[in-house]
């Protein structure tokens, strides 16, 4: 996959999540999900419009899941916006909440 295969809106500020590393003794405990949620909060606080990540669509072993499992992103509100070969591009719009007094 290369950048020519993915459409980018140059007016949007896009944050990318590319990798998760969780020690094998601590997998399955929600650590990657917690890291994902903190990364999303960080992008939101920094004024990003969109968050994207690149999990594999099909994995043969846990080593291929270093981008984070596709199912984790889907559970956290990401949607598959494109599939290129065995790589999904998942995106999530950053919600901006305004408080009016």
Short summary:
The chain is of the alpha+beta class and 101 residues long.
CATH architecture: 3-Layer(aba) Sandwich
Shape: globular
User: CATH homologous superfamily?
Assistant: Gcn5-related N-acetyltransferase (GNAT)
Weakly predicted, low-confidence segments: 1-5
Please tag this protein with its features:
101 residues, alpha+beta, Aminopeptidase, 4-stranded mixed β-sheet, 4 strands, 21% helix
Describe it.
The protein is of the alpha+beta class and about 100 residues long. It has one domain (about 20-95): Gcn5-related N-acetyltransferase (GNAT) (Aminopeptidase), CATH 3.40.630. About 20% of the residues lie in helices and about 20% in strands. It has 2 helices and 4 strands; from the N terminus they run βαβαββ. It has helices spanning about 30-45, 70-75, and strands at about 15, 50-55, 80-85, 85-95. It has a 4-stranded mixed β-sheet with strand order 1-2-4-3. α1 (about 30-45) links the parallel β1 (about 15) and β2. The longest helix is centred in the middle third of the chain and has 15 residues, at about 30-45. The chain is globular and about 50 Å long. The termini are far apart.
List the helices and strands and how they pair.
Elements: E1 14-17, H1 31-45, E2 50-53, H2 70-75, E3 79-84, E4 87-93
